[in-house]
């Protein structure tokens, strides 16, 4: 049975960094692949027995690299490192916030590269063992027994070919479904990354909104106090104007007028801040709507992956039945071959007896 996609897509190690790619024209300048720091993770694909580096920015994968034993991660500065991907014909660069994060990523890159080398060596040893077993298979049957006419004596060849054809068809269907399942897992991973980004933005916006709501009450109290002060100053100015020369001097009037203008400017600034907070509140509702849509899409993708897993299980069951049928046919063919061996031996004895009679 195949491992479930959630277990297969579990990251081994993750770090946040700014991602860059080498300019394909100059091969010297770096081009930013993300506007801000994104998550860069190591994954292990159990189906292909390979290690991969994946980073998702927004709704697209900006890094999808298979780690090979020939790759080398080079530190070019205290917070920047790079490696070359020959399959993608590009060079990736990562900029970290601290030197410690760069060191951790470099050490994990070495570990994954060594694990990829061991996985490749095990795969090669397994292929060599299978090749040796194939070469060492017994070749005792004569050319006549291995030829198609002898195998057709009891008619099992057509059934065997049909079994092999069904096996090939089931294997093709199995590979197609595995590919669909892999694509569905990548889509789900993109949706999860998008949901994580939305949740992060949502939490920041909620915190800012709570802080703004707390400040709004204080600003309202300050605004009421400023309005009262403004009214009092206006009354004083009107009273001074009514008394004419009997009131304070013109210098005092100028000071009161200046204080009044400053208070009006402050009131205008507070009104603008309140409008900005109200617009942020509308953005918060829009982010909640986007988050709900992402959750809905993620649930649909999970249902689709469940259906694909069910189809894979059915295909595996059919493949197992076909293999059992093929083994049964192989047993029948072996019995037919043994029977032919006995008949050929008897015919050989009869031939030798006839030759002796003719010689006499």
How is this structure best described in words?
This protein is an alpha+beta fold and 360 residues long. Strands 1, 2, 3, 4, 5, 6, 7 and 8 form an 8-stranded antiparallel β-sheet that branches. Helix 5 packs antiparallel against helix 6. It is elongated. The protein starts with a helix and ends with a helix. 10% of the residues are buried. The N terminus is likely disordered.
Gist of the model:
This protein has six helices and eight strands; from the N terminus they run H-E-E-E-E-E-E-E-E-H-H-H-H-H.
Write the layout of secondary structure elements.
Blueprint: H1 5-8, E1 13-22, E2 30-32, E3 38-45, E4 50-57, E5 60-66, E6 74-75, E7 80-85, E8 90-95, H2 99-135, H3 143-146, H4 148-151, H5 157-243, H6 250-359
Antiparallel strand pairs: 1-2, 1-3, 1-8, 3-4, 4-5, 6-7, 7-8
Count of beta strands:
8
Q: End-to-end distance, in Å?
A: 70 Å
Shape descriptor reads elongated
Percentage beta strand:
5-15%
Average pLDDT, rounded to a whole number, is 78
Features of the shown structure:
360 residues; alpha+beta; eight-stranded antiparallel beta sheet; 8 strands
């Amino acid at each position: 049975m195949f491992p479930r996609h959630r277990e297969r897509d579990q990251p081994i190690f993750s770090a946040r960094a700014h991602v860059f790619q080498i300019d394909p024209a100059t091969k010297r300048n770096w081009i930013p692949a993300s506007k801000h720091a994104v998550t860069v993770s190591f994954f292990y694909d159990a189906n292909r027995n390979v290690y991969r580096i994946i980073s998702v920015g927004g709704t697209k994968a900006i890094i999808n690299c298979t780690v090979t034993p020939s790759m080398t991660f080079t530190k070019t500065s205290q917070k920047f490192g790079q490696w070359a991907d020959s399959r993608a014909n590009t060079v990736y660069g990562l900029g970290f916030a601290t030197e410690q994060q760069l060191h951790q990523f470099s050490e994990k890159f070495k570990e994954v590269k060594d694990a990829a080398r061991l996985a490749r060596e095990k795969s090669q040893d397994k292929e060599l063992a299978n090749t040796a077993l194939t070469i060492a298979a017994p070749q005792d049957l004569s050319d006549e027994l291995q030829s198609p006419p002898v195998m057709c004596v009891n008619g099992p060849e057509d059934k065997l070919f049909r079994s092999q054809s069904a096996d090939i068809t089931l294997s093709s269907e199995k590979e197609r479904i595995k590919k669909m399942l892999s694509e569905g897992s990548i889509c789900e991973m993109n949706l999860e990354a998008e949901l994580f980004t939305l949740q992060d933005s949502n939490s920041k916006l909620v915190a800012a909104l709570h802080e703004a709501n707390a400040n709004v009450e204080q600003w309202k109290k300050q605004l009421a106090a400023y309005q009262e002060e403004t009214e009092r100053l206006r009354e004083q100015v009107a009273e001074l104007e009514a008394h004419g020369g009997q009131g304070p001097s013109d210098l005092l009037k100028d000071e009161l007028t200046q204080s009044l203008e400053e208070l009006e400017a402050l009131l205008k600034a507070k009104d603008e801040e309140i409008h900005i907070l109200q617009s942020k509140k509308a953005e918060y509702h829009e982010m909640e709507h986007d988050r709900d849509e992402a959750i809905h899409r993620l649930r649909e993708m999970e249902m689709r992956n469940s259906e694909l897993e069910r189809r894979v299980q059915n295909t595996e069951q059919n493949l197992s039945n076909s293999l059992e049928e093929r083994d049964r046919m192989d047993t029948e063919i072996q019995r037919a071959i043994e029977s032919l061996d006995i008949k050929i031996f008897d015919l050989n004895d009869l031939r030798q007896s006839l030759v002796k009679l003719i010689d006499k």
